[in-house]
Amino acid sequence: MNYKNGKDVLPPSLLKELQHYIQGELVYIPKQTEQRAAWGEKSGSRQQLTLRNQEIYSCFIGGTTMTELERKFHLSGESIRKIIVKMRRTSIHQASAHGAYS
Fold first, then answer.
1. What pLDDT does residue 71 have?
2. Model's pTM, two decimal places?
3. Which pLDDT band, with edges at 50, 70 and 90, does 35 fall under?
4. Which end of the chain offers a freer environment for a tag, N or C, measured as fewer CB atoms within 10 Å?
5. Per-residue b/e over 76-88, b at no fewer than 16 CB within 10 Å?
6. Which pLDDT belongs to residue 101?
7. Which 3 state secondary structure label does DSSP give 2?
8. For residue 66, which of 48, 50, 85 has the smallest C-alpha distance?
9. Could you count the other beta carbons within 10 Å of the beta carbon of residue 30?
10. How far is CA 81 from CA 11, 30, 89, 93, in A?
């Protein structure tokens, strides 16, 4: 995040209006919604977690126990359960969208 002086970037009328509300303090102005990247999109974290969660679900479907999953992925049992429930819902939703449950 870059710091910019309002008098250098804002029209004088807008600067004067803002000074009615705040003076001499920092104000964060967020990007417009359509310009914001979702969490983890730029760093690739979102994709890495998706792949990890798919692997967890595949292992579970393949018979790996919860304890083994906890050890392998260094996650709590509750976290593993949440991932499995979410992945199960996603796979059921995708299957029904493709006509597998029609």
1. 96
2. 0.57
3. low
4. N
5. eeeebeebbeebe
6. 52
7. coil
8. 85
9. 7
10. 53, 35, 12, 18
